From TrEMBL:
Keywords: Repeat, Secreted, Signal, Synapse. GO terms for cellular component: AMPA glutamate receptor complex; extracellular space; synapse. The keyword Nuclease does not apply. SMART domains: VWC. Residues 35-96, 98-156 form the VWFC domain. It comes from the Eukaryota. This is von Willebrand factor C domain-containing protein 2-like.
Amino acid sequence: MSWCKNYPMGIIQTWLALLVHVQCSVAFSVAGHENTCEANGSVYYVGEWYFLDSDHCTQCECTADGSACARTECTSLPSACIHVSHYPTDCCPRCEKIGCEYRGEVYDLGEQFQPSECEQCTCEDDGIARCLVADCAPPPCVNPVYQKGKCCPECKDGPNCYVDSSRTQVIPGGEPVWVNSCTKCRCHDGQDAGYWEGNRLATCTRVRSCQTEEALKRQGTD
């Protein structure tokens, strides 16, 4: 080129170096613009990680294909967790207390408790309260009562039974009882095997050709 003849070789070399530098700078700028991600009002380069301002639980990576985002994965809470809290600054819930909840009451793991006179319970490691319930034998009476602090019902008046299926008259267990002038009944006294598996009625016998006082009175008025 003829225009180069008028300039020293050193100046020409300097110009060429500057020209190459400008061309490389332009190429880098274009490539950098193509491989960036815009989010949160900022520009991120490939390989950079960032959290979304709109959702602090979502983390993104800027890749050559754009932003690749995923929400924070929360670990599972303990099975015995009975108090869970959610804080605005946390992505995942927190377990504040582990234990067992039984009938509205909270118990620590391994704790033994007695929610009623008939139950003995233990708070297991899985957060479940497991209970043993007392097995009460059927009471030998038709009018059992439950005493405070005791699990099984008691026969306050002793063993007894109903005279008949009307269940209107109760007689004590043991010795036979004349329920009227012609009928004698007996309750089993609790020692007779299998009695309380029945209907709690007395065994009665009636005197032959006997008329009760009520029947005689009715005949006298006729």
